Amino acid sequence: KQVYEIICANYERLDAAIDFKRDFGFDFFGFKTLERSYLLKVDGKIVERPQHMLMRVAVGIHGEDIEQAIQTYDLMSRKYFTHATPTLFNSGTPHPQMSSCFLLTMKGDSIDGIYDTLTQCAKISKSAGGIGVSISNIRARDSYIRGTNGASNGIVPMLRVYNDTARYVDQGGGKRKGSFAMYLEPWHADIF
């Protein structure tokens, strides 16, 4: 809502700064990539041009600083730089998550800890974030489980669940595949 109000209050300056001829600077593959993943859609129909996307991103980043937004738009539209994918997907939208990477530690060596962390990973992936998770605190295979008087299955079955979640909860609703990197210390018993 805030970005919408800023655009409404400054639409004449913003429109005057947009150079639609620069849309033709994208080759076919570049345009199809924008069309498939980056340009906003409503009910499956594209509702912005590449230059609109760049201005949306610039206003989403700079807010009410219209001069900086226009300068950022101009530099991006002339291909001096671009922003990371989550910024291009989400800046200037109701869910402006613009970080590319998130580093997590498993919340605990329990069903609750494992699935709380999995839920957090799914929510981050939904908003186009890549994830690194330290899993060194998960007990190794055949370790005793006091609560059930049983033995742990180790990290491999848990990793399958995380992998399936990364494949299911892709980044940005089908814009690109989810990415989870799992990290395990070399001293962990499941390595030996």
Task: Explain briefly what this protein structure is.
The protein has helices at residues 2-17, 28-38, 50-62, 66-77, 85-90, 111-126, 155-168, and strands at 41-42, 45-46, 101-105, 130-134, 144-145, 150-151, 180-183.
- Series of H and E elements: HHEEHHHEHEEEHE
Strand order in the largest sheet:
3-4-7
Overall structural domain count: 2
Q: Major β-sheet, in short?
A: 3 strands, parallel
Round the mean pLDDT to the nearest integer and report it. Answer: 93
The percent of residues in helical segments reads 40-55%
SS elements, strand count = 7
The gross shape turns out to be: elongated
What portion of the residues fall into strands of 2 or more residues?
5-15%
Report how far apart the termini are. 54 Å
How big is the Rg? 22 Å
Structure class: alpha/beta
Low-confidence stretches: none
State the assembly state of the protein chains. single chain
Number of helices: 7
Organism: Nymphaea colorata (pocket water lily)
EC number: 1.17.4.1
Function: Provides the precursors necessary for DNA synthesis. Catalyzes the biosynthesis of deoxyribonucleotides from the corresponding ribonucleotides.
Keywords: Deoxyribonucleotide synthesis, Oxidoreductase
Note down, in words, how this protein is organized.
This protein has 192 residues and is α/β, with parallel strands linked by helices. It has two domains: 2-90, no CATH class; 101-183. The chain contains seven helices and seven strands, in the order ααββαααβαβββαβ. The protein has helices at residues 2-17, 28-38, 50-62, 66-77, 85-90, 111-126, 155-168, and strands at residues 41-42, 45-46, 101-105, 130-134, 144-145, 150-151, 180-183. The strands form three sheets. The protein has a three-stranded parallel β-sheet with strand order 3-4-7, covered by helices on one side. Strand 3, helix 6 (111-126) and strand 4 (130-134) form a beta-alpha-beta unit. Helix 1 (2-17) packs across helix 4 (66-77) and helix 3 (50-62) runs antiparallel to helix 4 (66-77). The radius of gyration is 22 Å and the shape is elongated. The model has no long low-confidence stretch (mean pLDDT 93).
